[in-house]
Amino acid sequence: MKWDKWIRAVLLVVALSALSGLALITIFIFREGVPIILRVGAKGFFLSTDWEPSLGRFGILSMMVGSLLVTVGAAAIGVVFSLGLAIVLTQFSPPGLSAALKPMIELLAGIPSVVYGFVGVVTLVPLIRHWLGGPGLSVLAASIVLGVMILPTITSIAIDALQAVPRSYLEGSIALGATRWQTVTMVLLRAARSGLVAAVILGMGRAIGETMAVIMVAGNALDVPHSLLAPVRTLTSNIALEMGYASGDHRQALFATGVTLFVVITILNAAALTVSRQRAGRKRAK
Amino acid sequence: MWVLTGITFAVLLFILAFILVHGLPHVTWTFLTQSPASMGREGGIFPMILGTFLVAGLAVVIAAPVGVATAVYLAEYTREGRLTSVIRFGSDCLSGVPSIIFGLFGFVFFAITLRMGLSVLSGSLTLALMVLPTIIRTSEEAIRAIPNSYREVSLGLGATRWQTVFYVVLRSALPGISTGIVLSLGRSISETAAVMLTAGSALRLPHSLFDSSRTLALHFYLLSREGISMPNAYATASVLIIVILALNLLAYALTRRFAVKAGQ
Amino acid sequence: MKSSFPTLVVLLVFGTICTGCRRTSERSVSLLGSTSIQPFAEMLAERYAKDHPGEFVEVQGGGSTAGLQAAQRGLANIGMCSRSLTAKEALVFTSIVIARDGLAVVVNHDNPVVQLSVAQLRAIFDGKISNWNEVGGKDGPIRPITREEGSGTRESFVRLVMGGERIAGRALTQESNGAVKELVKGDPATVGYMSLGLVGKDLKTVAIDGVEPTVEKVLAGRYNLVRPLLFVTRGEVNPAARKFIDFVLSPQGQSLLAKEGLVRER
Q1: Which fold, B2-263?
Q2: Inter-chain contact B12–A108, Cβ cutoff 8 Å?
Q3: Quick one: closest CA in B to A247, which residue?
Q4: CATH (residue range A65-285)
Q5: Chains meeting B at 3+ CB pairs closer than 8 A?
Q6: Using one digit for the tens of pLDDT, what is the confidence trace for C69-105?
Q7: Cα(B62)–Cα(B56) distance, integer angstroms
Q8: How many C-alpha atoms does C61 have within 13 Å on its Cβ side?
Q9: pTM given for the model
Q10: Residues C179 and C250 in one domain
């Protein structure tokens, strides 16, 4: 009995240290980053495209736009291909095949981002430059590379969401005379909607956080991109490019960028959570 | 629909094939056991293999016990309530925070403030913090998924709380827990940006935890980005991919094996 | 047992931290900084290690400003910097010139342009000139490539060429000489600046104001885009680092650098 109490105490200590360690990181990042936002002003930080650290200008608007464009682009590609893949694997393929392919998809989630970036630089960027114009290092290149990278994430969550729809829904629809395809679009997708939305949101969260692959294919220009073929710099690339030598205000501005990313991810996560809770709520109501 | 699927798989397989076809021919025993020369243009990648092993391995060795212990405490010794939901949400957020932010934190806190410098230690501690939320989350989910009947039966048979947790619950939750740990190991091995600025990019063999060391992913990045040696870059990437695929296969096999055992 | 394991690990970690918070042994030398100097430092380190077995020299990149900061915070023994120090920096650091390096303007082999004036170069990089046919090339957009802000190469370029104008926001940014070289190698519309010593055969250099960028022209004082390559230290230099610096400044070290395309200092 005493042994039990002792163990519980040790676990408590470890748990507290771990959790407080993680909390400390959050506090540290905010403590380093928030003051500079206040000093430069919300307008000067969030609404200015003027990023010139040597002159004390820390406007991250062009990088926020960059991150946004690239993430939305990646999500668009992710949605099309991942959902298609998920639907095919759960509805239209023999059970053995989908069971074999699902772990393969998750295997591919482990490939390092630098490999994706490299293949993108060597194959995709020259293609874009040759056939579509521009430097090749572009919003388009980054969106495609990121889209491919978040495919496994979206696909596996989407598969779970689709498989969670009760068979009775689908059988009922077919019994009423709908075709397979109509069942999929009008019943399955609608029923699994919240899970699918959560999958896309979580995929976007992953895309926003990606650094290395984006540095390699996006061009890292400071201007706000004016087209899909223009080079772009994201919030994460900016931190990675400059953190080695930034000091003082500049470094705090990078932490502030971190704070921004942190807040965005939290909002995305909260959105995904709410969306999946809605679905659970609706199921319970039934 | 099938076209989309075909394209998806084609792209993913193409990426793997592209690297492996260009790289595998250069992966020789000498390559794996020698040190690099001339900035990586010649020689092998042994220090990078060791560096990756040290940085990523140490990170998981630190994070896994701490994470699992935390998950055990949260799942078994606390009641479900607002506090646990907040902690869970916090862990979820932190596991989604971009790794570069952990890198920034690690650089300023471990390397500079704690004066550990650019070292294996700075790198592993940073990575440990990075994967800790994920390990806590996946372990906690795995533990909570174990039906209460298991616990009740065990207690009913006279086992203490801790014996129940350790011998019954943890053993049954092992597939989920080990998958989380193996995936965290994979994530640590692939991590580049955070490692570059905490463990540094020194080419030579690290002699202590306080030496800087280069990981495979970083070496690949630098070789390819700066055009130092494309053959070596491909070879390094091939080694990296094989290691990660092996790890994921291990995770998959572990899940299946333990699931079968637990089903009995 | 799962209970004592985490405690053990935590103790182990703290033990290692506390016993070894000071930087590494006295027998190793660490250099960090300019990506222009990095390949040459690596080469010197390799030769040094061959002649002095047991001495470890470790070289990392990161850019000139990162090098200065590393020297300041003790992250490295020697910071590598490819631009001259500002007055404020000169108060804090000791700098030793190990060589001089030309700043070369590079274009792709398929680009017919062979010469530019400094004024044209400035206009290209601040965005005022945006088509190659304005400077004697084929019709097509110009894509200027620049370095990250902490780069000594960039800082030198800005001081020597830009004359107060800002580099265009649409310039592609790369974080090392090698990356610039790779990009220019692959895209005929690009133009970049990099260390003369690192250009190699894959790229074409452009004559500036009629003078070709070669080591001879730099030595003769005819080619004006030149910057010093510095080893920067702060305070006391440990004996191992002092030995390495002496090696770099020795005739042996200097001729190694000269062979690779730098302008020797001694």
Answers
A1: MetI-like fold (1.10.3720)
A2: yes
A3: B108
A4: 1.10.3720.10
A5: A, C
A6: 999 988 899 999 999 999 999 999 999 999 999 999 9
A7: 10
A8: 22
A9: 0.90
A10: no
